[in-house]
């Protein structure tokens, strides 16, 4: 692994992936829990999840919209997790009394005790719940001894996704499939091609009426493209 690129590792096992609804999920690597985009208390579909027992060693936030950041401050304060996000978002956390932050803007990467995280641009708007500017929306590639994955955050389809596959050999990608506010299923298939992965975990679906999808149809469209789409139940844990 060189400092010039985010490279694939030679030996991969599996990592534990837990879905908490909408675009919130955690990945456990080397016993370290990385939680992404926490939106639980505001999600009527996630009532089975106890926010007060949720564990995180790291908290990754892709952008400032309420459905990705609503529970972030409370979780960060309780768990003392290190927050990874863009400059505006880490500054926002600092203004809320959280100083355990690590800033990554698009193009930047950094090493952590679980592996390497590189930040990529997402094609999406971003503002905090009060309407103030939250910087650019981001996605993140994670490289570790237990595998490599990419979380796009909320995004539209973009040829920039080729930059991810050029630097990182992915085991899977986490992509929005709900349409209207992000990519839909068809564009997510195109994104997976650009990312050069045939395994996708779908997020950002069913939470609101506008983004309810036909699960079976979505899975069959991916299958027809020679790909595997996983639409997990809230609270479901898989090894991936």
Automatic annotation (TrEMBL):
Metallo-beta-lactamase domain: residues covered: 21-204
Superkingdom classification of source: Bacteria
InterPro entries: Metallo-B-lactamas (IPR001279), RibonucZ/Hydroxyglut_hydro (IPR036866), UPF0173_UPF0282_UlaG_hydrolase (IPR050114)
NCBIfam families per record: PRK00685.1 (NF001911)
Name listed for the protein in its UniProt record: L-ascorbate metabolism protein UlaG, beta-lactamase superfamily
Organism name: Dyadobacter soli
